[in-house]
Amino acid sequence: MPQMKPLYWMNLYIIVLLLLVLFMVFIHYLFIYKCDDIVSLNNKDINLIWLW
């Protein structure tokens, strides 16, 4: 089946995008969580920027 419906590709694209966004948010939250343990209160402003 070389030719597929355009709708299929659209759905695939949207799903991949959603997964990517979720992954990025997860990474950012992990990063903030790790920094909270190590870094002092001075860097809290920088961490908030990561949260969009």
What is the gist of this entry?
With 52 residues, the chain is mainly alpha-helical.
Write the layout of secondary structure elements.
Blueprint lengths: L5 H33 L5 H7 L2
Helix pairs in contact: 1-2
Keywords: Membrane, Mitochondrion, Transmembrane, Transmembrane helix
Protein name: ATP synthase F0 subunit 8
Organism: Eupristina koningsbergeri
Catalogue the unreliable spans.
Answer: none
Compute the CA-based radius of gyration: 18 Å
**What is the helix/strand order?**
HH
Main beta sheet: none
Secondary structure class reads mainly alpha
| Number of helices, where a helix is a run of at least 4 consecutive DSSP H or I residues | 2
Look at the structure and give the mean pLDDT: 72
Termini separation: 42 Å
- Measured as a percent range, the helix fraction is over 70%
Overall geometry comes to rod-shaped
